[in-house]
């Protein structure tokens, strides 16, 4: 069982949703990212999503676009991020999922990416522009490695396609809460609840919900009907305004608030 | 990838059902857009077989665009250069001033078939934006055009024309502030608005079915040119030349000639300040295969896969990637690609203007 699967199994027993914060690796630099990730893990993150910057992030809104630009400005490379993950593994066992676009992975080399992930202790990948149709070569390389490939599903995804995504994906399924890019406005609660219900009934994997969750209260609201809650842009914009020195502390405070709120609202299991 | 036998080329069989031209093409987009691309693919396949759609498309090309455009013998230019006879396919005479409208007419008809009420587009030089704004007005559709602020500054007149036609021009002030960022922003808009909006992409780029569909709409250029040259000369041309940004005008001209083995083809990319300076948009000179803005193709990128900013005096050629079908025919050896620098292009611009009285687009 992968570290990600194990985390969701444990959370199911604890009857609470996973708290999955997202930060951009290298924003503002990799040594700050190291401090931020450790602080997130201390403050209750169940998994951490680590962004690998790409010059043209199609699925991202302005907050994460700016974070990617800062990370590239500081000279962040995918090799540097694997070194960071390796360093982090000396201090934390929190599952780490790398979120990037296909081109950086392709240029690093599919096999080399997976080898580096295994060696460093990264647990999975989210690649929003790699659809099941095009993922053949990547999945072939992943086979038998224990590294998870987490697919995204959207409000526009029809039922038969949900089945495909469930089959191709491993670890969990990432449900995009809104028709739009990261950091946009979250859908109204009743609608989102019924959409997530539809997805959870159709698939076998745990379903984590992301895009547009901005506050601890919203996280708790979504956590009441999802297996995991992903908070990205809201956290990244706190890191942006805190500046290098205070970034980790500021991220930690926000993570703690989200985590406490999520734990206060335990859910019934599926 | 090299194709061993050129006889095996059967262009009309490409792309495959997933939109692949050999290792190129396909669909590399956020999941949110997949259902819309599948719908577009289905609707386009149906429309292509529908005589009513074909009639209406042909009618609009004739009555609204003003086709067929002439194949014009550039007599003075030919004499000036002292070489083989030069013919110009006068796409500049299309309504709104460029070939772009061949595609926007087709996609506007599809938008109506799909029952969508709003269209969005990106534009570099502004030609595609103007052509989209015109069909939006003609079909009564709301229209937003994304344009880099750098391009808005150098193509002010086209911004004015788009607004005059009733479109909203949305300034894109991120990245290089040119075409690639305008495409990213248009795709982000589409990700949010896909239920009631159609994205009219302007070149043979992006996810399937765009490269195939836009090639088909633009192939009217080559179909006419083939008929016209046979009428004028009783034979086919020895060589076809077209500029390649994304490559829609080139693919439109070349496609109907791909099986004519005697016809050579050269696509010309923007050499900017020269290949060695790194300030250019010659993808085939220094690019590599990669996934970008929905498709697998040849693009200018660094070792890490970050997409490079390009330079060209021509806003329409100033783009980091090339249409996937061009990449395929490049590898297959069927189409050759060359580049010319900014100063060479400006010199040719003046030469044509002053020998023929025809000012080409830059």
Q: Strand count, sense and closure of the main sheet of chain B?
A: 4 strands, antiparallel
State which percent range the strand residues of chain A make up: 5-15%
Number of helices of chain B: 14
Radius of gyration of chain B: 19 Å
- How much is the average pLDDT of chain A? 96
| N→C terminal distance of chain A | 20 Å
Low-confidence segments of chain B, given as residue ranges, are 1-8
User: What strand line-up does the widest sheet of chain A have?
Assistant: 5-4-3-2-1-9-8-7-6
Whole-number average pLDDT of chain B? 95
How are strands sequenced across the largest beta sheet of chain B? 1-2-12-11
Structural write-up:
The complex is a heterodimer of chains A (270) and B (362). With 270 residues, chain A is an alpha/beta fold. Chain A has a 9-stranded parallel beta sheet with strand order 5-4-3-2-1-9-8-7-6. The longest helix of chain A has 32 residues. Chain B is an alpha/beta fold. Chain B has 14 helices and 13 strands. The two termini of chain B are 33 Å apart. The N terminus of chain B is likely disordered. At the A-B interface, helix 3, helix 5 and strand 6 of A face strand 2, helix 1, helix 8 and strand 11 of B.
